[in-house]
Structures are given as structure tokens and as C-alpha cells.
């Protein structure tokens, strides 16, 4: 398996709901006018709390500082796992489940905070630039690590790895504790929320983006209006949450939305898997999670991997969101409930 | 719908007059001649000669991303369309009554995860196989090979039941969801092509790598990391040559050496959109960039394949502009030479365009001219322009070389006769060489060995005496002063007026002129020697001679009326009327007679009079003050004009080289320049880079004409005059046993060795018996035919060669022959006497050594050439 450190330097930002109006111009430019910006990595996710924007430094320049803008101070680097086709695993599962054991668990063990971004095309694992040496040191046994430089994949030099290990040893103060130990001292278990809406993960030919522009603008920026009406139906408000994610990364578009939003788009333009699967969401966190705690993704992905259940995972500024197949939601719910009992039992 | 779909063109694989344009829909066109009977009102002109008619439109398949035309003859107009959602749909244009076609049209091939279909490729042999290249989707495969004949699978119907989010209703009877092969997991595929060298191999431009998939073993792939993954395409003429591109850069790959591109073409400022090999022309690649109205062509015809690391590939790059507007796409015509149809980026404006072939032109080493264009070769010859060709210096030099011009080193003066004897300049330059000869004999070693010219001779003039002689045959004292000195006398000799030896009488020269019927000149020379009676006598002789000019009598009469009376009517009339005389010598005679003493410009600057005659005149009648000035002036004039007659003045000095330079600049005659300057002093003149350049060029010319014998003779001649020009021995023969050079070790000579003279190949017969290595005494190799050791002279009957016969054959004339040389093949190392080898290979192709199958003679490229000079 190969691990690619992609050639993007990313910032994670939140825009408050009320402040969105100040950023519509740069956001529309970043979404629709690909040729007018040098931004190569852009993701916008609307949650009930705020808008989370993940974008590279070129894109970041477009956003003016403002009181409505919260910027996480670190530079994040996206990692991408590439299995070389001859994947030995018999698992049919997709998404973070595939990398739960090989990437997410070891990083959690090394106290590396990760920010996940699943798209229609792939899963990006964002790590802080300052943690890169530890990441490389941790993963170099399992993976061939490549650094993408100017569009070419360059194998990481041995010396880099050696330095990384040295650094890791220093920072980790001796050998890291084995996995079994760490599970017993697992940090706080966050509360989860499982809303009722069904989600789909879709894509779009970038050439047809202009033809859905009005719908997209409507869904992204004017969703609060009609939602006021929706709030009059309290049952829906309780059971469903607003979640819409758009990303345009290296020319590929990915959309995550619930079926209600999906119905607003022309039927033949968005595409997804031929099986047309639907997803349910597990939102992790009662209080905003922050960026420093590690092991949150591992907490969810580990048991899913044990049960071989596919999952997508989208981190936002405040909370994390896992998407699991609709047909597996009961199993997932049970599993999460058991997990909550376990620490109490031990 | 605002769709950025850029147009593309596809030619029908089987109908050379049909093509499809695809943008937002598919349009089938037929191309035909303008004004033909088929031309309808709706025909669109594509060029001055051709027009296109729209036959059919198909707009059933929206969101087209790529189109590929079914490669087989039937069904004839079946197209595969790749869509933005990754589905591949079979469709057709126009009506087809073919049942196979009806079954196939409408069939859809749906990938598990929808994403853009980037490329399609039909297998050229197994036409049921259609490869589709898709964008990346997680761990899914991006290269799907569909079998278009496969029936829908039952699982597909099960799957369709599960679909709750179906965007398009899947009609399960026409939908295929199971590909025959799935390749390129976890990757994106941007371009595809089947390899022509094996239809089981598929070349794919993946995300940052080019991969070759083998359908016989799909778990393995050959790949190379590169950014150039767009538009992979195989050269139809060289099946191992592939082009691909990335942004503005095209990479050319050799599949046998797949680690890196064998070459990359110069980067273009805008991203490329299409790259296509010309199907009708070897090694011609056309490329198109975005927002451009030109197509750039790269001619790799002369690029050696495979291209080694060392060789600098030669690519000829040029651009063509088929139309004014920006080009959307182009397609080469499948069979019509260098022809393409171009479609504009907007409004579907089409142009039929033929790329004009480069014309290459070549002169042969003789005078013929060939030019080639496309598949045509033209031999250019001038009609009835014999004269023009004869005037051409290359032809002249070749003819002169053939008639051994310059090769008479004993009687140098004869060379101008060898050159054809018509050129007065050549004559005078060889006169000079003749004179030089004489000078050397006169002067012994007192002066410089090399002729330094009259200019230098008169400079050193001293002890000049002045005399006033009587007119011969008259007792009247002449008032014309004449000057004498040893140097002036030598100059007169060099001018040919007086012969060698102590005799200074001009009479011998006059007689020779009379003999050559140069009456006027003879008369002038006689007159300048103050013998007016002799002059009249000569003119008279000229008038009465066979075919003589009677007018000479009139001139003689005019001459006889000479008077030195300053104000006579005779003087007055002669000085004005003389200008009407056509013959320059007659003219200068009267100029001399009517001139004031010491003011002879009428004679000295009469350019039609031979330089040597004017110089001789000057030496007789100009004072020590006037003479060097006149000679200097004349020398400069000659140098400027490149007139070889001036060599008389400059000699073979630096001045002479300057003069020769302007002569060569004017005529290109390096032949005369080479022969002439060889006689110059090795120190200055021969070392002059100009001289070396003429000599080398002349040698190259002789080589080009295959006048190898002439060149050898020239080199020998040159070696005698300039020993430093002899090349050092470069090849030595070493003994098989001790490894020492057999020519070097036995002779006391240094490297500039005697070569094979000791081995019976040349030179003296007494040393011809060395048949063993002088170093280790081991025998030298044997001739494969006569089995004699090297060093033994060739025998006519090699099998029964007896010692007596051998003695008989060691005569010098035999030994000097090339037949005795020892030669061998550099490949199989067998060999023998050159004569034996030559006669063997006259009837055989293989090496004479039994069991050796080496085709020695065919390996020797120069051995099969024949010299074209027969000496």
C-alpha cells in the first residue's frame, strides 16, 4: 500500500451562519470560477452550527479576515492511501473502514490529531504539518510513502524517515504504549447523535457545474429561509439535521446531501453508484470537539472495521460526522450503545 | 445547457468520404468534390475543391465525453459514446438495416460507481471488446473492458430492484453492469489505446503513470511514473512508438525502453488538446493546443528507432494554419495522403486541408539536382543549357581533374593545356610557374627558394643604368630613355620577353609570337624594343599570312610614317585615331609613339594588354622612382580583381594568397588554388588557413566525385612539397601471440612507420620475406585461400606454390601491387591476400574459411564502392 502526502497546504476555517453574507463573493468564485483562481483544494460543509471551509493557501487568500471567520492556526496536509490494485483484503467495505486499522489507529496511538474528509472519490486524512515527521515515522512500516512535489510522486527519502523517528522518540518520551494499554485508557467517549435524514454521496461532471449553479447557490446560501418554515414542524427539526457538503479537489467534485436537497437537483446530472445506496449519519460530539483531541475518529472507525461496515467520515469545525450504510444503522446503533456501556463496566 | 463540450472529429474506419463531428450532438457528414453531381443545396464548402453534406444527426446521448467508432466493416456506423456519468452507450447514425446493429444500438454499459468516462477504445482485432477509462472512485476500478456481445446479466435485474435513487430508469434488457475485465483499481484513467503489436495489451494513461495491462494476466501491469498521461496514441507505422502529453508537453515513448520518454518535444505555452500520428506518413505527429489556429507538426521520419541515449534526435518542427478561426479539433484522413479535416472551436466550421510536404533538395557531387516532395522524386535538368553547365566551375573542375589538370608536376606549364587551354588566366599562372622554374635555375640558392614575385624583385633593384638607344635600322637617336639592371632583366625573363640563358635578345620571343600568329602583340613587343622596322615587317607578315588581316598593312604604313616631331600632323592624328583601333596592342603601339617621355599611361593602364607585357614594358621604360609605384598599383588592382595574371607580380607570397583568395571568391576554383599554392613556402603560405581550406575542400571534392586515384596522387604530390601534411600511421597490426605491433617492433622507424613495406606489400623486394612476428618469432596468420603466411607474396597458383615461382614473383612490379596486401574481416577476423579475397568474393558472399558464415564483403560498406576515375 502507498501513502501519498499530497501537495496542498490547507487551512481549516469556520464561517458563522450570520457572517456568510460577507463571504458569498469569494465562495462563489471558488466554487464556480475554477479558471479564475489557483485554488486546487476546496471544501465547504454546512452544518447547523456554521460553515466549515477547508482550502489551500491560494484559496485562503481570497477570504478577507473578519469577526465571522474562525481560523484554526495550523497548516494541515492531506494524506491519501492508494492500494495498488492487488488489495488482499476480502472486505467489501469502503471508506474510513478500510484505513481504520492501518492509518487511523496507529496515528491515534501516537497522539496525532487527524481531520477527516471523505469525498465521493476518496478519503483525505488531514494531519498538522508539524506532526508530519511523527506520521511518517509511524506509518512507514506499513506504507510506501510518497511525497507529491510539483505533480510528481517522489518516494520519501530514508533520511527523512530516520529524522522523523528520532523526533518521534523524543516527543513520545520513550516507546509508545501498546494498543491494549491505550484502549483501557481511552479518553472520553463523546455523545453521538443519529438524525433521521438519509444522505447520498454524489459527484458531478465539472463541465455541467454551470447548469446546476442556481440550485447549488440556493441550497448552499439560502437554506435558512425555507428552513424557518420547516422549523414549524418540530418533529422534523428534532429528527433531521442540516448537512450539505460540497468539495472541488483537483478538479473532482463531490457532494454530500440529504435526499431532500437531492430532489432539488436535475435528476440526470448528479451521479452516484449504480446501486444508489443511501447513508445515515452519526454525529460525534456534544460540545464542539476542538482540534487537539486525538482518537475520536478511531473510536468510531475501529468498531466499524471490526464489523466490516463501510463508513465515510467528514470532520467539520465543531463536530465529526460518520456516514454509514442505511441498512447497517441498527447494527451501528447497537454497537455504539455497547461501547458506551463498556467504559462504565470496566 | 451551458456545456463546454469541445468538438471532435472521427473519420469512418471504412468509408474514406465519411466523418462524424461530435460536440453536443453527433453529426455524420459525407465529403465530396465541389460542383459534383451530388452537390446539394445544403453542401458546406470545406475547401476550393471539396464540400460536405450532412447525412444524419443523433442527439440521443447527452453529456457526451468521448466517442469511438466501431472498427469493423459491419455494422458500419456504430458508435460508442462515453458519458459524464461513466455510462457507455452504443448508438448509430443514419439508417442501418443490419440486424446485428439493431441489437447493439441502445445497449448501455454502466459502471458500479458513476464518474466521468474519459476515453474509449475499441480493440482493433477482437471488436467485441470496448475499453472505457473512467475517473477515480475510491477503491473501484477505472479501466473497464466491456464485451458488447454479452447479454444482460441476471444480477443486473436484481440490482435494479434495489435502486431507490435511480436517476435514469435502467431498462434491464439493454443494460450491462458486469465488465469482462476490471483494471486499474484505486486509480483514474485519462486515456487509452490498444497496442498494435499485441491486441491483448492495453496502454492506459492513469493518474500520474502510464500503465500497460495484459488481458492474459490482469493482476500485473507494467507501468512508468509520468505526468504525460493524456492522449496516449500508438504510431501506426512504428508499433513500439507511443505519444502522450501533459499540459503543453508531448512525450514520445519507445515501449521497448519504457523507463522514460525517448524524447520530449518543445513545450508549448498553452495546454494541448489533441495529438495524432499521421496514418499516411511515417513519423509525422500533429498537435493542437487550446485557443490556437495552428496545428504544429513534428516530423520524426529521420529520427532513428530505437533512439539511443547518445543520439541527438532530429525532429523537424513546423506549423500549419488550416483556417483563420480557432481550431476545436482535427482528424487525419485515414488514407488520403497528409490530409485532415479541421473543425473550428465555435460554430462547427469545417475545413478540408492537406499538409504540404516539405521539399528537400540535394545536389549530387556531379551537377544533377534532385528534389523530393512526399512520395515523388524529381530529377532536375536544364534543357539545352549545355553552355551554362560548361561554365559551371564544378563541372569545369571535374573535367579538368579527369584530364589530370595539375598532375603534370614535371612540365608544370603544360597544365593549362590539360585544363583545356582556353583560359588565359590559367595560362599565365602556369607561365609563372614555368618562369619560376627558370628563376630557380638562374639564381641557384641565392634568393629565396620560393618565387616571391616581380613586386619584390623590383623593390630590391639597384645599380640601374639609363641608356638612349638608336631606333634599329635608323641612325636617329631616340629620346626615349631605357633602363637596365640585373633585376629588371630578371623581370623581363619572368615576363617571357627574353629567354633563359645569357642571351637577352628578344628575337626568340618575337618568333614564337609570330609562330602563334599573334602579329599585333609581336609588333608591339618589337616596337617597344625600338625596332620599328621589325614591327612593320611583322605586321606585313601578318597581313600576307594565310587568313591574315589585310588591315595590318595599313597599320604598318601608318607606323612607317612615324616622326618624333612634336607638332606634326602624324602625331596629332595618331594620338586621337589610335583609340578607334580595336586591337589593344595596335592601340598601345601608337600610344607609345605619341607619348611624352616617361608618361606612358596609355600603355601601362591598357587593361586589355597582358599584365606580363605591361610589366615588361614598365621594366624597360619606367624610372626607379616610377616603377615600384606602378607595380604596387597594378598588384593591388590584380588582388582586388582576383586576376591570376597578378601572380606574376605577387609570387607565392602572402600577397599571392590574398590574390588567390579573391580569385577563389570570384570563381570557386579551389582546384587551381590548391595546385598553385602547394608550391608556396611551407612555412608561411601553406600554413595559411585559407590555403589549407582550399586544399581540404579540393580533396573532399575529389572524394565526392570518387576520384580516389586522383586524390591519392594529389596527396602524394602534396606530401612531397609539404611533408608535414603526411598523416601519421593510425592503424597498426599487432601479433596475435605477443600483442606487439609487427610493423613497429621490427623497424627502427618511429611511429610514422613504413607500414607494411617489410611484409611484401610494397617497397623493396629484399625485405619482403618476413613471415613471422619480429617480436616473438611466431608465424604470422595465413591467407585463408593460399594458406601461406602473411608476408608471402601472392602466387597465381596458391595450392602448388613452389619456392622457385615465389622467387620469380618477388619482382618489384609484382610486389607493389595491391594484390599482395594482407586484409581481413573485422567481424570474423579471417582474411588473406587482398587479391585472393577480391577474387573469392567476386563469386561468393560468405567467408572463405569453411564453417564460417560471415558475410564479410557485405559488411564492408566501402569495399563495394568503385572509384569513378579509372587510373
In helices, the fraction of residues of chain A equals: 25-40%
* Number of DSSP-assigned strands of chain A: 17
Strand order of the largest sheet of chain B: 1-2-3-5-4
What's the rounded overall pLDDT mean of chain B?
Answer: 80
Q: From the alpha carbons, calculate the radius of gyration of chain A and give it in angstroms.
A: 20 Å
Determine the number of helices of chain B (DSSP H or I, runs of at least 4 residues): 27
**What would you call the quaternary organization?**
heterodimer
Mean pLDDT of chain A: 82
Structural class of chain B: alpha+beta
> Could you give a short account of the major beta sheet of chain B?
5 strands, antiparallel
End-to-end distance of chain A: 36 Å
- The radius of gyration over CA of chain B amounts to 44 Å
Weakly predicted, low-confidence segments of chain B? 156-169, 438-450, 745-768, 797-812
The dominant shape of chain A is: globular
Number of strands of chain B: 36
What can you see in these coordinates?
The complex is a heterodimer of chains A (346) and B (871). With 346 residues, chain A is an alpha+beta fold. Helices cover 32% and strands 27% of the residues of chain A. In chain A, strands 2, 3, 4, 5, 11, 12, 13, 14, 15, 16 and 17 form an 11-stranded antiparallel β-sheet that branches. In chain A, a hairpin with a 2-residue loop joins strand 9 and strand 10. In chain A, helix 3 (96-109) crosses helix 11 (296-307) and helix 4 packs across helix 5. The radius of gyration of chain A is 20 Å and the shape is globular. Chain A starts with a strand and ends with a helix. Chain B is 29% helix and 22% strand. In chain B, the strands form 10 sheets. Chain B has a 5-stranded antiparallel β-sheet with strand order 1-2-3-5-4, with no helix packed on it. Chain B has a 5-stranded mixed β-sheet with strand order 6-7-8-9-13, with no helix packed on it. A 4-stranded antiparallel β-sheet of chain B has the order 10-11-12-14, with no helix packed on it. In chain B, a hairpin with a 5-residue loop joins strand 24 (284-289) and strand 25. In chain B, helix 8 packs antiparallel against helix 16 (611-621), helix 10 (519-528) runs parallel beside helix 14 and helix 13 (569-577) packs antiparallel against helix 14. The two termini of chain B are 85 Å apart. The A-B interface holds A 82-87, 94-95, 98, 120-123, 151-153, 200, 203, 205, 207-208, 210-211, 252, 259, 262, 267-278 and B 1-5, 62-63, 65, 84-86, 110-116, 135-139, 159, 162-168, 177, 183-187, 208, 219, 221, 225, 227. Chain B: Belongs to the WD repeat mio family. Chain B: It is found in: Lysosome membrane. Chain B: Residues 397-621 form the MIOS-like alpha-solenoid domain. Chain B: One of its GO terms (cellular component) is lysosomal membrane. Chain B: Residues 735-857 form the GATOR2 complex protein MIO zinc-ribbon like domain.
